[in-house]
Structure formats: structure tokens, C-alpha cells
Design brief:
Helix content: 25-40%
Bound molecules: iron/sulfur cluster
CATH architecture: Alpha-Beta Complex
CATH class: Alpha Beta
Number of domains: 1
Mean pLDDT: 86
Number of helices: 6
Largest sheet: 5 strands, mixed
Radius of gyration: 17 Å
Order of helices and strands: EHHHEEEEEHEEHH
Distance between the termini: 30 Å
CATH topology: Lambda Exonuclease, Chain A
Structural class: alpha/beta
Number of strands: 8
Length: 200
């Protein structure tokens, strides 16, 4: 299937994860979108997220350390022309009494790495824009550990996001291939390894 770039929101929130992993992955995705392989990991992640939604319906908000009453909404479509991003958080918790909004993302990973955190921060800011509620935290939910970990949506996180987006838009505009990741171990499991002749 051919991938087209949306001018209003050229990036998906999941592209942030790729950017943190290796900026070159993003380059391949946006500049050579037809070559993107679909990996087993991508399919497994999607299926596990859907199964988790069923379990979530039976979970109390106490699993997130929340004592307040909240509404849950799943797979909320978001688009921000300000950030140039679109995406769908797995779940959103709305605390109407305090006008707070909390994005939650389910992951097959045990660890809330920087790449996952940046995605959650982006969802929080997009939710703020869309609703007028405040996003000051989100949750990374580890499916294997069945545990939620809080992710702060603070000034530092917001600046990190802005910096990443500025660089990503630069790659898109100039179609210039970024340097490879300094951590070459990442290349061993990379879906784009066959395109990077200078790393292995
Ligand atoms: S093979 Fe290595 S340098 Fe190339 S895109 Fe993958 S992680 Fe980045």
C-alpha cells in the first residue's frame, strides 16, 4: 500500500519513537515510504494493545494510583497542525472535576524508555490542544509486567519534544540522510538494516 504524507500533520506520534531509536529510521520512513517493511513486532504490538483494552475495562483507576473518579476513552484520534502530528493514544483518562487529561499507552516492553516517554508527552500536549484540559502526566503501561509507570509531562519533556520535532521537520524538508546511530547494536535488529551499507 502506498503511503502519502499529510501536509497538515506529516508525522505520526509513533514516528517519535523511531526518531529516538535512530534518526535514520525516520528518514527512510518519510523519504522512502514505499520500502517500509511490516515486521512481526509491529503486528504483535498492535494485537497485544487491542487485547489489553479488554482487560482495561475490568481494571480500576487505582492501578494508576488515581483516587479520583475518571472517564476512560479508548483509541482517541488526535491531530495537531501546530505540532504537525497525528496519533491515537491507546487510552485517555479524563478527570473532569480537575480538568486534567491523562494519556495511557500500552506497550509490550518492560521498560519505559525515552522513546516511549516522548510519545506519551506528545499525546498529552495534543490532548491539551484539543480539549483545553491540562496534561501534567501520562502512563506507560507495561503489558508483560501488568504495571503502569507515570511519565511526567513537564517543561523539560515539552522542550525535548519540541527539539525532536524541529529536527524531524528538517529531515523532511531537506531530505538529508542523518548520521547512523552511534549504538550499532541497534542495527542488528533494525528493519532497515539492508539500506544502511555504512554500519555493518
Ligand atoms: S541499520 Fe542502524 S543506522 Fe541504519 S537505520 Fe537501522 S539503526 Fe539506524
Amino acid at each position: 500500500m502506498e503511503t502519502t504524507i499529510d501536509v497538515e500533520a506529516p508525522f505520526r506520534v509513533s514516528d517519535l519513537k523511531q526518531w529516538v531509536y535512530c534518526p535514520r529510521v525516520l528518514y527512510y520512513q518519510v523519504c522512502l515510504p514505499k520500502v517500509r517493511p511490516v515486521t512481526y513486532k509491529m503486528i504483535a504490538g498492535k494485537e497485544a494493545g487491542m487485547a489489553e483494552e479488554g482487560r482495561e475495562q475490568r481494571r480500576s483507576l487505582k492501578s494508576y494510583g488515581l483516587k479520583e473518579e475518571g472517564r476512560r476513552e479508548f483509541e482517541v484520534p488526535l491531530l495537531s497542525s501546530t505540532l504537525g502530528l497525528s496519533g491515537k493514544p491507546d487510552m485517555v483518562i479524563w478527570l473532569d472535576a480537575t480538568r486534567e487529561v491523562i494519556p495511557v499507552d500500552y506497550k509490550l516492553s518492560n521498560i519505559a524508555g525515552e522513546h516511549f516517554k516522548l510519545q506519551i508527552i506528545a499525546y498529552g500536549i495534543m490532548l491539551e490542544e484539543a480539549s483545553g484540559y491540562t496534561a501534567k502526566r501520562g502512563f506507560f503501561y507495561s503489558i508483560p509486567k501488568r504495571k503502569a509507570e507515570e511519565v511526567k509531562i513537564d517543561k523539560r519533556g515539552r522542550e525535548k519534544l519540541q527539539h525532536a520535532l524541529t529536527e524531524m521537520h528538517r529531515v523532511l524538508r531537506y531530505e538529508r540522510m542523518p548520521e547512523p546511530t552511534p549504538n550499532r547494536n541497534k542495527c542488528l535488529a533494525c528493519e532497515f538494516r539492508r539500506f544502511c551499507n555504512d554500519v555493518l
